[in-house]
Specification:
Elements lengths: L23 H12 L10 H5 L14 H7 L7 H15 L2
Helix pairs in contact: 1-4
């Protein structure tokens, strides 16, 4: 919404995440623990899921500098707190 109110943002692409890296397996564990699940986390190699020709980058850490410079946006909510807030919202809305 903020990008729609800033003329300099027209035509730009913004990463609005955090620049703190988190491994997907760690994120999965955080979510599992947050919802109180005892499910195991199973790693499926990309090759098994998508075939031999699939290519992907091994790390993703968003560059949030443009969002900070153009929009004045910086993520302020830590991941664990954001996950808790998201779960609480889903529980309220879909209870």
């Amino acid at each position: 919404i903020l990008a729609g109110t800033v003329p300099e943002a027209a035509g730009q692409v913004f990463n609005i995440g955090s620049n703190h890296e988190v491994a997907i397996r760690d994120l999965a564990g955080m979510i599992r623990d947050l919802v109180g699940s005892s499910s195991s986390i199973v790693h499926v190699p990309l090759r098994d899921a998508y075939g031999d020709d699939f290519e992907d980058i091994s790390r993703r850490v968003p560059d949030t500098q443009r969002a900070a410079r153009v929009l004045g946006f910086r993520a302020e909510t830590p991941l664990d707190q954001g996950l808790q807030q998201t779960l609480a919202w889903f529980q309220r809305v879909y209870a």
